[in-house]
Automatic annotation (TrEMBL):
<keyword id="KW-0560">Oxidoreductase</keyword>
<dbReference type="Pfam" id="PF00389">
    <property type="entry name" value="2-Hacid_dh"/>
</dbReference>
<dbReference type="GO" id="GO:0047964">
    <property type="term" value="F:glyoxylate reductase (NADH) activity"/>
</dbReference>
<dbReference type="InterPro" id="IPR006140">
    <property type="entry name" value="D-isomer_DH_NAD-bd"/>
</dbReference>
<dbReference type="InterPro" id="IPR050223">
    <property type="entry name" value="D-isomer_2-hydroxyacid_DH"/>
</dbReference>
<dbReference type="GO" id="GO:0030267">
    <property type="term" value="F:glyoxylate reductase (NADPH) activity"/>
</dbReference>
<dbReference type="GO" id="GO:0051287">
    <property type="term" value="F:NAD binding"/>
</dbReference>
<keyword id="KW-0520">NAD</keyword>
<dbReference type="GO" id="GO:0005829">
    <property type="term" value="C:cytosol"/>
</dbReference>
<feature type="domain" description="D-isomer specific 2-hydroxyacid dehydrogenase catalytic">
    <location>
        <begin position="4"/>
        <end position="315"/>
    </location>
</feature>
<dbReference type="InterPro" id="IPR006139">
    <property type="entry name" value="D-isomer_2_OHA_DH_cat_dom"/>
</dbReference>
<dbReference type="InterPro" id="IPR036291">
    <property type="entry name" value="NAD(P)-bd_dom_sf"/>
</dbReference>
<dbReference type="Pfam" id="PF02826">
    <property type="entry name" value="2-Hacid_dh_C"/>
</dbReference>
<feature type="domain" description="D-isomer specific 2-hydroxyacid dehydrogenase NAD-binding">
    <location>
        <begin position="110"/>
        <end position="284"/>
    </location>
</feature>
<dbReference type="GO" id="GO:0016618">
    <property type="term" value="F:hydroxypyruvate reductase [NAD(P)H] activity"/>
</dbReference>
<protein>
    <submittedName>
        <fullName>Glyoxylate reductase</fullName>
        <ecNumber>1.1.1.26</ecNumber>
    </submittedName>
</protein>
<comment type="similarity">
    <text>Belongs to the D-isomer specific 2-hydroxyacid dehydrogenase family.</text>
</comment>
């Protein structure tokens, strides 16, 4: 029997599905494995289910040895994985797209609403015990009806965010590497990057982290947004977190919301210091149903490769 490694506790019943086919080593904890433990545990494995915290690079692949055939990432993003290094060794990479789209789009809207309507500030005020009173000028936020929503990265999640905007009567614009007929037909307007920034009162960032997108949303881009704009990001590393904090502190942005940070679990102190920043601990796909589906899809991919089947969601090669 071949053996596999699962680097984190998964939804109930998911790891048990592997048992009839492979010998399983499971790190059944909510915290990631240390690097040393990960490198030791992956030795001799034919497959591994990883999370975004597990860096899969040449060192990892060397530690695994020549028998490794599949890295099944328990995420849609794969920026923790060196795809070229995997391809060079014939190691397949899969992810968990689609099954997390609705949950993540819903949570993007939770962030968008919390930021524009100052929910975090209000909640903290009540919990502080400080006196407060309803007043015509108290904690006023941004009204969404009629406000332009810009989406950077109109993929599965971006399009699901756009569909939800219909109920809020928001005009939607987007920028993507290519124009998308389906998005255009649904009423979204493709804009060049400069124009997207110049015309979005609320900007949602949903494009994957890559060499091309790292810190794409920096000081200069943030300055292009209209005064009082709101930025919502559910991806790590695309928005420069220091520049975002600076733009909030200067008053140029009225609010921001971030789920998924560049150096998790660290959250920059400069962002924590901004009362108008809504900060979430990477909760985008965190529903019972979605985490079950992500676990099942990761197992489907891993088992397909190890039993000679067709992995449903292969990323590379
Ligand atoms: N916060 C959370 O818990 C979660 C975050 N995510 C993040 O959402 C990202 C997107 O996921 P999906 O929508 O499923 O991916 P997707 O691949 O369907 O969509 C990404 C879109 O971004 C576009 N894109 C890529 N590079 C671009 C660039 N330079 N400029 C403009 N557009 C660009 C692509 O063409 C594509 O349309 C993931 O990579 C992940 O980082 C996903 C799930 C949960
Ligand atoms: O949580 C992020 C993802 O890529 O999945």
């Amino acid at each position: 029997m071949e053996s596999v490694l699962v680097t984190r506790r998964l939804a109930p019943g998911v790891v048990e599905r592997l048992a009839p086919y492979v010998e399983v080593t499971s790190h059944d904890e909510e915290r990631p494995m240390t690097r040393a433990a990960l490198l030791a545990a992956v030795r001799g494995k034919a497959g591994v289910i990883t999370t975004l915290d597990d860096v899969v690079d040449a060192e990892f692949l060397d530690a695994a040895g020549p028998g490794l055939r599949i890295v099944a990432n328990h995420a849609v993003g794969t920026h923790n994985i060196d795809h070229a290094a995997c391809a060079a060794r014939g190691v397949l990479v899969s992810n968990t797209p689609g099954v997390l789209t609705a949950a993540t789009a819903d949570f993007t809207w939770a962030l968008l609403l919390a930021a524009t309507r100052r929910l975090g500030e209000g909640e903290r005020l009540l919990r502080s015990g400080e006196p407060w009173a309803w007043a015509p000028t108290f904690l006023l936020g941004m009204e969404l009806t009629g406000t332009r929503l810009g989406i950077l990265g109109m993929g599965r999640i971006g399009q699901a965010v756009a569909r939800r905007a219909v109920g809020f009567e928001m005009p939607v614009a987007y920028h993507n590497r290519s124009r998308l007929p389906a998005a255009d037909e649904a009423g979204a307007e493709w804009l060049p990057l400069d124009e997207l920034f110049a015309r979005s009162q609320v900007l949602v960032v949903t494009c994957p982290l890559s060499a091309a997108t790292r810190h794409l949303v920096d000081r200069q881009r943030l300055a292009q947004l209209p005064a009082g704009a709101v930025v919502v990001s559910v991806v790590a590393g695309v928005v420069n977190e220091a520049d975002l904090a600076e733009s909030l502190a200067s008053g140029h942005l009225s609010a921001a919301a971030v789920d998924n940070f560049e150096r998790e679990p660290a959250v920059p102190a400069a962002l924590l210091a901004q009362p108008n920043a809504v900060l979430a601990p990477h909760l985008g796909s965190a529903t019972v149903k979605t985490r079950q589906a992500m676990g099942d899809l990761a197992v489907d991919n891993l088992l397909a490769v190890l039993t000679g089947g067709q992995p449903p969601t292969l990323v590379s090669p």
